[in-house]
Write a structure and sequence with these properties.
Blueprint (H helix, E strand, L loop, with lengths): L2 E19 L5 E21 L3 E5 L7 H13 L4 E7 L10 H16 L6 H8 L6 H6 L3 E4 L4 E4 L6 E5 L7 H6 L11 H7 L6 H7 L1 H10 L6 E2 L6 E5 L2 H10 L4 E6 L5 H4 L1
Parallel strand pairs: 3-4
Antiparallel strand pairs: 1-2, 2-4, 2-5, 2-10, 5-6, 7-9, 7-10, 8-9
Length: 270
């Protein structure tokens, strides 16, 4: 096999609570991850020794290149790859597109280069690329703790989400700088299940971005809007497709997406 094409999915945080700042500068979290059917497309073709990336709109500090370089160096691999990336998941919107692309790169190159690393080894490596990347390696709806790398499978409930993607871009660094200094008691998954989720960044995002606050006010007429990740995307969840489609008629600027139990990237491992 000298060529692999994959779909890298976006994610939503159905719940996201920041509970403490760590000594290493990162934060401890409690979050519920869900995949959605919004994808980037990546193709990997074996090359001599070089790592090349072709993309329609070049991205500075691209995690795809970082992931390929990390894997190559960590395994002393002398092979190369030509990567094509077609972006559909917008950046800095709390949808995890860059992290998903990084995970897709680790998984695809592990197979393309015949490295035979285990999922556990890839999970350890992926944390060096970002706190969300392990979830995309894990490949299943999950409750996450630690930085996001302590992952537990959760029961999957099919949901549809009305997703609004604002013009505003929010960097993860800026969002964490906006958090209050005191952190609340950590939620458990059981508490989330009984009372629903929230997002620690919501107040800061609404106070900082007028567009985000305005869409929250509007979406409150049809359900409980939530921020995904550190923002800026806002979504409302529905258990029935008919309800989501009805709400969509009121908000044509939104897109309708569906939760996925598994990532399509799991097919690479099988």
């Amino acid at each position: 096999m000298n060529k692999i094409s994959v779909k890298a999915p976006a994610k939503l945080n159905l719940h996201l609570q920041v509970i403490a700042k760590r000594n290493d500068g990162f934060h401890d979290l409690r979050t519920l991850f869900s995949f959605i059917n919004l994808y980037d497309q990546l193709t990997f073709e074996e090359n001599e020794e070089e790592i090349e990336l072709k993309e329609l709109k070049p991205i500075s500090d691209n995690l795809v290149l970082k992931a390929a370089d990390l894997l190559k160096k960590r395994t002393n691999c002398n092979k190369g790859v030509k990567i094509s990336l077609q972006k559909q998941i917008p950046l800095q919107k709390g949808l995890g597109g860059g992290s998903s692309d990084a995970a897709a790169t680790l998984l695809a190159l592990n197979k393309l280069w015949n490295l035979r690393l285990t999922q556990a080894e890839l999970l350890d490596m992926s944390l060096e690329l970002g706190s969300d990347v392990p979830f995309f390696i894990f490949g299943h709806s999950a409750w996450a703790e630690g930085r996001g790398e302590i992952l537990s499978k959760v029961d999957f409930y099919e949901k549809w989400h009305l997703l609004y993607i604002p013009e505003a871009n929010i960097s993860t660094k800026k969002a964490f700088e906006g958090l209050p200094l005191k952190f609340p008691r950590p939620y458990t998954y059981e508490e989330y299940s009984s009372s629903g989720g929230f997002n620690s960044f919501e107040k800061w995002a609404r106070d900082s971005y007028e567009e985000i606050d305005e869409i929250f006010v509007k979406l409150e007429n049809i359900g409980k809007p939530r921020l995904s990740g550190t923002g800026s995307s806002v979504f409302v969840s529905f258990s029935k497709l008919e309800e989501a489609e009805s709400a969509m008629q009121q908000f044509p600027d939104c897109i309708l997406v569906k939760s996925l139990e598994h990532s399509p990237l799991t097919q690479i491992i099988e």
